[in-house]
């Protein structure tokens, strides 16, 4: 069995973990990362010295001339605040936040749980940051159950409500009613 002190062994373990792990310094530069972090990083590699938001193609970093940490939105960045808290000795556990990335000209929204802790390495205090992508779970939460027969929507109390009434009540939408050509043909073939 490999020795636990072996750098290759530890890197293998880190790369096997299916959660993005970043090692970030006080200047918010990504020092190292595991394989799962490649989902978030456009620049990756040991001592890349690229600011976290720039490495992730964060839309706020890209829209600011000075890059990561300088836009008006950076103050509320969950990754940045978790990093700073971790460097101050506060252990951060699964803090929710959103990362907006610009990739190939398109903006993608990621819902994340961010954790962080300080680590001491060669006389430097660094932060180990994990990014759990919960985007799929977040989007599933938005799915509304609808009856495949009558098209009513199940609301929280277990009752069923017509789609138009639900959308009017919950989304403020107003509807007018009509009959599509297919339904007209089925229901009123004599008027075709």
Distance N terminus to C terminus? Answer: 78 Å
- Low-confidence spans: none
Q: Strand arrangement, largest sheet?
A: 3-2-1-6-5-4
Sheet with the most strands, sense and barrel status: 6 strands, antiparallel
At the first level of CATH, the class of the largest domain is Alpha Beta
Walk me through the structure.
The chain is of the alpha+beta class. It has two domains: 133 residues, Beta-Lactamase; 48 residues, no CATH class. Helix content is 27%, strand content 29%. The strands form two sheets. The protein has a six-stranded antiparallel beta sheet, sandwiched between helices. It has a two-stranded antiparallel sheet with strand order 7-8. It is elongated and about 85 Å long.
Feature tags:
192 residues, alpha+beta, 2 domains, 6-stranded antiparallel sheet, two-stranded antiparallel sheet, 7 helices
List the helices and strands and how they pair.
Layout: H1 7-16, E1 20-24, E2 29-33, E3 50-51, H2 52-55, H3 59-62, H4 78-87, E4 92-103, E5 106-121, E6 124-133, H5 135-141, E7 152-154, E8 160-162, H6 163-171, H7 181-187
Give a brief outline of the structure.
With 192 residues, the chain is α+β, with helices and mostly antiparallel strands. Helix content is 27%, strand content 29%.
């Amino acid at each position: 069995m490999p020795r636990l002190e072996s750098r290759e062994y530890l890197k293998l373990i880190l790369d096997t973990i299916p959660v993005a792990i970043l090692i970030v310094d006080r200047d918010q530069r990504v020092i190292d990362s595991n394989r799962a972090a490649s989902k978030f990083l456009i620049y990756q590699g040991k001592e890349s010295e690229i600011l976290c938001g720039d490495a992730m193609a964060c839309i706020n970093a890209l829209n600011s001339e000075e890059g990561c940490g300088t836009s008006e939105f950076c103050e509320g960045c969950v990754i940045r605040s978790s990093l700073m808290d971790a460097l101050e000795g506060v252990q951060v556990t699964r803090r929710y936040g959103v990362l907006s990335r610009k990739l190939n000209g398109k903006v993608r929204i990621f819902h994340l749980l961010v954790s962080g802790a300080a680590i001491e390495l060669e006389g430097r205090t660094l932060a180990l940051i994990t990014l759990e992508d919960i985007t799929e779970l977040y989007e599933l939460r938005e799915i509304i159950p609808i009856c495949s027969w009558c098209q009513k929507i199940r609301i929280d109390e277990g009752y069923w409500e017509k789609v138009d009434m639900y959308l009017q009540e919950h989304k403020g939408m107003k509807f007018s009613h009509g009959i599509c050509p297919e339904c007209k043909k089925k229901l009123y073939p004599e008027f075709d």
